[in-house]
Amino acid sequence: MDCFGIPAPVGSYFEGSIIVWKSKKIVFTELPVRSISEVSHSALEVMIPLCAVVAACKASRGIGFRGDLPWGRKLPNEMKHFARVTTETKEAGKLNSVVMGRKTWESIPDKRRPLPNRVNIIVSATLQPSDQANGVFVVRSLEEALEVSRKENVERVMVIGGAQLYQDALKHPDLSTVYLTDINTDFECDTFLEIDERQFQEEDSIDPAFPRDIQEENGIQYRYRVLRKL
What we know:
Layout: E1 13-14, E2 17-22, E3 25-28, E4 50-57, E5 62-64, H1 76-87, E6 97-101, H2 102-107, E7 119-123, E8 136-139, H3 142-151, E9 157-159, H4 163-171, E10 175-183, E11 191-192, E12 200-202, E13 215-217, E14 220-229
């Protein structure tokens, strides 16, 4: 930005410094730069939105029980909502990536994996790339999953579980959005989500994909929420 408060274009000069776009910030180099080629490639990377998609019991924040969803398969419409949120993109021809731990991957029925029309990435310390079918990436960390997502030129990175991966995403500086389904019924759980909602602002969505009213299936009530990181 120049002295008049006017945004300067990427790569332009001002007072002997070059301005680049990186991770939501305008970064000023401290030393004069002679050419744009001297700026590191990583500094010019466009940040891909990092999101978490999770359903949790409203009272306990329970998200799992014995390796499965606490409510089992009783919420088919909520599962369709999950598929829509993780699949839809704004730009034609682009895909989102879905990032999950090994146990989450193994909890998906064989006939439904890999999740279609999405780049599937498994974060695991034990699986080897050769263990998985073509088109499924195996990495060791969320950071590696983000790197794969950048190389695959995805539109958004969607973390879908389990608990440790959610925690890594919630602490990550690039996190932008949590798509949360509040389950109003309590279930027995052994895995929980730790989220401080004071760090987020709930969006008053007018998107029909996120109706504000209470949903109900098989006697279980729930509500869709969109939380934007402050």
